[in-house]
Design brief:
single chain; 300 residues; mainly alpha
Length: 300
């Protein structure tokens, strides 16, 4: 979502004070290091622990790769801008590339979340058919399609960079539409889970205990994904909303005044989402927590 094009507009302050540069540099460096560490840990846990190689975790690793892209490229460029701005002095090629990467990771993130939400719903609705149809090859194909689609949107944005209507179309098709799908899938997932719990209670006790444990495990996984989706929404919605305003605003007419602090905060917030995901896994997912501890303790 190319709100990056506003960073050198008249909405930003005339100068960045030395104190602001120092605080921004320290905060950004810490955020970059923690994001790289946390998401590398997610990928390592998936690679080294066989029991972690589930369908959902495959998509979470793909999501971690998008977060690593943010930490390795987008955040450092943002830091360089904060240190050299408010005028953009880093060249147009880097500016366009930065925007493309932001669109790439934003699209890939929400598409991965959409795939996770859909597979969670299928696994609860029909577990036997799910295990037969959603194989490792199927998951790999879906992840490849997610990245090809995201790269295609990012590359297209390079050629239509100056078209504000394109920014609006991308925002709707790559954020709001997938978000509605995700929310609908989660609603259906929890509805199916509650229905199954009621049905299990009507079975004999021996069957009840085992089946209930399976449903509860799926329910907890869905709950974790819900928190991840909530964090994504909280972190990205302000940025996307400002992008919609930018896309609809005609500079030849009166535009709403957007405080520069709001632009800076929204940009920082959506980058901060890349830091949150590993923290959510370690708090809410017991398997990830055990895998993280095993990796860290083995290397200590």
């Amino acid at each position: 979502m190319p709100l990056n094009s506003t960073v050198n507009s008249t909405l930003v302050p005339n100068t960045f004070s030395p104190g602001f540069r120092l605080c921004a540099a320290m905060f950004s460096i810490i955020m970059i290091l923690v994001t790289i560490f946390g998401n590398t840990l997610v990928i390592a846990a998936f690679s080294l622990q066989r029991r972690m190689r589930t369908v959902t975790n495959s998509f979470l690793v793909s999501l971690a790769c998008t977060d690593l892209c943010v930490a390795a490229f987008s955040m450092p460029v943002w830091l360089a801008y904060l240190l050299t701005g408010p005028e953009w002095t880093l060249g147009e090629i880097l500016k366009h590339t930065w925007t493309m990467v932001d669109i790439l990771v934003g699209t890939a993130s929400i598409m991965n979340l959409m795939a996770i939400s859909f597979t969670r719903f299928l696994s609860l609705r029909n577990p036997l058919r799910f295990s037969e149809s959603i194989t490792s090859r199927t998951v790999a194909a879906i992840i490849i399609c997610v990245w090809i689609y995201s790269i295609g949107i990012a590359v297209t944005s390079h050629f239509l960079y100056s078209k504000r209507i394109f920014n609006l179309v991308v925002t709707i098709t790559c954020f709001y539409a997938p978000l509605l799908f995700i929310l609908g899938a989660h609603f259906m997932t929890f509805k199916v889970a509650l229905t199954q719990v009621r049905q299990i209670r009507a079975t004999v006790p021996a069957q009840y205990l085992g089946n209930q444990n399976n449903v509860l495990k799926e329910y907890k996984a869905a709950k974790t994904i819900s928190v991840i989706v909530g964090a994504f929404l909280m972190c990205w919605l302000p940025f996307v909303t400002l992008n919609v305003i930018y896309s609809l605003c005609d500079t030849s007419h009166d535009c709403p005044i957007i405080a520069p602090e709001l632009i800076m905060a929204s940009k920082c917030l959506h980058y901060g989402n890349s830091l949150l995901n590993p923290i959510i896994y370690s708090i809410m997912n017991r398997d990830f927590k055990k895998a993280f501890l095993a990796i860290l303790c083995s290397r200590s």
